[in-house]
């Protein structure tokens, strides 16, 4: 019975892994029990890069600035006051014409913590680098 359980677990996909897709637009995402982070690149948009963090069971405060703290060997903080909340307040979205700092933070650190007002949520980055590499390749080739 233990062998059967071990085989089933080995065949199951890794829980909470970073994922990538190029269809219909370049996207990487990661979900935890408390939040989901999604980074997109859509060359058809004037501001092609976006990052959203959607909370599972609460809403973000309507305040500024919005920041993401990257903790790890190359830690840093980025912030903006050009963010929006979803209609229900569960998601905070920031868009820009470039995301090099976001991508560097995701691939080179241990945790990303989106911060808004007095709220923060920790997103583990332990397996983000391969998905970020695929995302970078996708944005270079302009797949959409």
TrEMBL record:
Superkingdom, taxonomy of origin: Bacteria
Keywords: Signal
Signal peptide span: 1-17
Protein name, as recorded: Excinuclease ABC subunit B
Organism: Candidatus Rhodobacter oscarellae
């Amino acid at each position: 019975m233990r062998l059967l359980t071990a085989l089933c677990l080995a065949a199951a996909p890794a829980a909470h892994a970073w994922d990538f897709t190029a269809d219909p637009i370049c996207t990487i995402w990661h979900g935890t029990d408390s939040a989901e982070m999604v980074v997109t690149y859509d060359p058809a948009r004037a501001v092609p890069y976006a990052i959203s963090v959607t909370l599972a069971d609460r809403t973000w405060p309507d305040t500024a600035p919005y920041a993401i703290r990257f903790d790890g060997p190359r830690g840093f903080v980025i912030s903006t006051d050009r963010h929006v909340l979803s209609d229900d307040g569960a998601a905070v979205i920031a868009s820009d014409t470039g995301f090099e700092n976001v991508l560097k933070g995701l691939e080179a650190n241990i945790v990303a913590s989106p911060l808004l007002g007095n709220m923060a949520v920790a997103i583990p980055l332990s397996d983000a680098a391969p998905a970020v590499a695929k995302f970078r390749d996708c944005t270079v080739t302009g797949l959409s």
